[in-house]
């Protein structure tokens, strides 16, 4: 009689335990759907996310809506599944993937290191690149040499048109800089003295307690050194057309869904319309846009072009965001300029960027501070 009673008690305890797990699961998935709705996903999209979370074996599925790591796991699984099933190019799948990438961008942009700006010039880091505007004279390049509580020491602004005997003493400046992963800032300052700081000809300028935040970054940028081809955008109707012939050799130095920075040989000028063609995961991608600013380095005879991209077709934007966020499957590194087999082995490890042709970029120009 006692063993039967013990068995009955054990069975009852097991049933209660199983029911409690079921209740907990129900509660967990109710929270999951509520969180998904708050995050802007439709009921159908939340169902898809639930399947992804289950397939990815997330310990806490709800973490998908606030954890970058958990969301990355699910997006990688989705990209892999779409490729294996051959449905990655279907419009519904591209739309869903685009929405996930936008949500992924939002999570990263809201991180404290990106969300929090600075409020005064004492917070500017040593080595920060600056653009210095002197009314009536022009815009000059400079850099923070040393930042103290009492003043900023910046390198003597450079411009070939400025006389060597030019005196900066008492000049009023407007200083612009772009803070990485944050925004652009402007502040006004006065030149206190001309000095040598750390062995560099410098200006001591006054601090400002009111920085004006000019532009917040709207995209995530990733550093690259990716070989590419540069073309003039001659036909506005063929901006996304893949070119068969080689263009000017260049390197993409950073990449986002809103633009890129490119190193090219020789001098270049802003405001020109261009196309940049490169490979992502062994597939050719073409980004068209406008050169917004140019930084020319005389010692290496190279220009760094800051390019603002035109609105991208959803498939190309998803490919670029997949590259930026590291969501694409790891395959063999794409070979630059479509070289394969023995041709690639004969290619030097470092390809020099090709000098821009005069027919494309004819004149030198002032450098603005735009970044993308």
Short précis:
The chain is built from seven helices and 13 strands. It has 372 residues and is an alpha+beta fold.
Overall description:
It is a single chain. This protein has 372 residues and is of the alpha+beta class. The chain folds into three domains: 2-110, no CATH class; 121-216, Roll (Pnp Oxidase, Chain A); 222-346, Thrombin, subunit H, CATH 2.40.10. 29% of the residues lie in helices and 30% in strands. It contains seven helices and 13 strands. The chain has helices at residues 2-38, 43-55, 68-85, 91-109, 112-115, 314-325, 341-346; strands at 129-134, 138-147, 152-155, 172-179, 183-197, 200-205, 212-216, 222-232, 248-256, 259-265, 273-280, 283-297, 302-309. It has a six-stranded antiparallel barrel. It has a six-stranded antiparallel beta barrel with strand order 8-9-10-13-12-11. Strand 4 (172-179) and strand 5 form a beta hairpin. Helix 1 (2-38) packs across helix 2 (43-55), helix 2 (43-55) crosses helix 3 and helix 4 packs across helix 6 (314-325). 26% of the residues are buried. The model is unreliable at 13-24, 332-350 and 361-372 (pLDDT under 50).
SSE layout:
Layout: H1 2-38, H2 43-55, H3 68-85, H4 91-109, H5 112-115, E1 129-134, E2 138-147, E3 152-155, E4 172-179, E5 183-197, E6 200-205, E7 212-216, E8 222-232, E9 248-256, E10 259-265, E11 273-280, E12 283-297, E13 302-309, H6 314-325, H7 341-346
Antiparallel strand pairs: 1-2, 1-4, 2-3, 3-6, 4-5, 5-6, 5-7, 8-9, 8-11, 9-10, 10-13, 11-12, 12-13
Helix pairs in contact: 1-2, 2-3, 3-4, 4-6
């Amino acid at each position: 009689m006692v063993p039967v009673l013990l068995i009955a008690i054990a069975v009852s305890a097991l049933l209660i335990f199983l029911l409690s797990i079921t209740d907990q699961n129900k509660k967990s998935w109710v929270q999951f759907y509520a969180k998904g709705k708050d995050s802007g996903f439709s009921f159908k999209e939340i169902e898809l996310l639930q399947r992804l979370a289950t397939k990815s074996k997330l310990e806490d599925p709800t973490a998908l809506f606030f954890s970058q790591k958990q969301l990355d796991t699910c997006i990688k699984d989705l990209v892999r599944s779409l490729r294996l099933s051959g449905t990655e190019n279907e419009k519904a799948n591209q739309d869903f993937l685009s929405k996930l990438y936008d949500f992924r961008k939002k999570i990263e942009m809201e991180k404290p290191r990106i969300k929090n700006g600075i409020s005064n010039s004492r917070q500017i880091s040593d080595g920060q690149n600056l653009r210095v505007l002197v009314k009536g004279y022009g815009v000059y390049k400079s850099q923070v040499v040393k930042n103290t509580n009492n003043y900023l020491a910046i390198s003597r602004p450079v411009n070939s048109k400025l006389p060597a005997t030019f005196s900066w003493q008492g000049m009023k400046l407007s200083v612009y800089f772009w803070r990485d992963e944050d925004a652009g800032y402007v502040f006004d300052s006065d030149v206190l003295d001309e000095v040598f700081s750390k062995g560099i000809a410098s200006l001591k300028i006054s601090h400002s307690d009111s920085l004006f935040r000019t532009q917040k970054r709207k995209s995530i940028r990733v550093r690259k050194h990716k070989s590419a081809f540069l073309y003039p955008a001659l036909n506005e109707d063929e901006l996304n057309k893949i070119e068969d012939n080689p263009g000017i050799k260049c390197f993409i130095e950073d990449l986002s869904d809103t633009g890129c920075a490119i190193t090219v040989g020789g001098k270049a000028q802003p405001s020109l319309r261009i196309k940049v063609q490169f490979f992502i995961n062994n597939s050719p991608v073409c980004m068209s846009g406008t050169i917004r600013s140019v930084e020319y380095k005389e010692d290496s005879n190279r220009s760094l072009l800051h390019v603002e991209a035109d609105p991208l077709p959803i498939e190309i934007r998803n490919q670029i965001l997949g590259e930026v966020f590291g969501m694409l499957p790891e395959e063999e590194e794409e070979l630059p300029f479509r070289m394969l087999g023995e041709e690639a082995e004969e290619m030097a490890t470092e390809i020099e960027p090709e000098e821009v042709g005069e027919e494309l970029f004819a004149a030198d120009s002032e450098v603005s501070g735009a970044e993308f």
